[in-house]
Amino acid sequence: MSGPLLVLVGPMGVGKSTVGQLLAERLDAGYRDTDDDIVAEQGRAISDIFVEEGEAAFRAIEKQAVRRALSEHRGVLALGGGAILDADTRALLAGQRVVYLSMDVEEAVKRTGLNAARPLLAVNPRKQWRELMEARRHLYEEVATVVVPTDGRTPEEVAQAALDAV
Ligand code: S3P
Q: H or E stretch including 149?
């Protein structure tokens, strides 16, 4: 199978980068994150792209970043939390080993709270989280080959559960 060893998907704040780096260490592989690729390529913060160009433009940029990372990277790859909203991006994940890190709404509110760096959660985080999870859960499940719940688990425990599951 070509492409990364593992692709991590799941909502923002679920721990994709922390767990992803642990997994990369354990697998003796590199770690890559499409959010970081986008910031490096665009020379601006993701929140600035949202404000200046809107979410649709961001998703188009993100799709190209995912495409490139899937073809170039052979280690652990984490995608931005909303990457799965794009049907083309979901199609790119077919045949990959995709780990969905899941959490429930209360865990999400607890972990992220109000975070200005996360433009989708600017107001009323609990309501936003509920809507966001309802809209996205089935899409994460659609692309996932494995689901790893993270509620009440440390990053080390989540990484171990992911390794046991794949
Ligand atoms: C987003 C998640 C973020 C980032 C952007 C949009 C989302 O990534 O791509 O702010 O729509 O859920 P993380 O999941 O890495 O925070």
A: strand 146-149
Q: Whose CA is nearest to atom 15 of ligand 1?
A: 80
Q: What is the pLDDT of residues 100-132, one digit of tens each?
A: 999 999 999 888 865 555 666 667 788 888 999
Closest ligand 1 atom, residue 35 Cα = 9
pTM of the model: 0.93
CB-CB contact of 116 with 164 (8 Å): no
**Cα separation, 46 vs 48, whole angstroms:** 5
| b/e burial code for range 34-58 (CB count within 10 A of at least 16 → b) | bbbbbbeeeeeebeebeeeeeeeeb
Per the annotation, does 35 bind a ligand? yes
Q: How far apart are CA 35 and CA 40, in angstroms?
A: 9
All structural domains of the chain, each given as residue ranges with its CATH number in brackets, are: 6-160 (3.40.50.300)
For 45, the token pair is 């913060």
Closest Cα partner for 3 from 82, 68, 100? 68
- 99 marked as binding residue: no
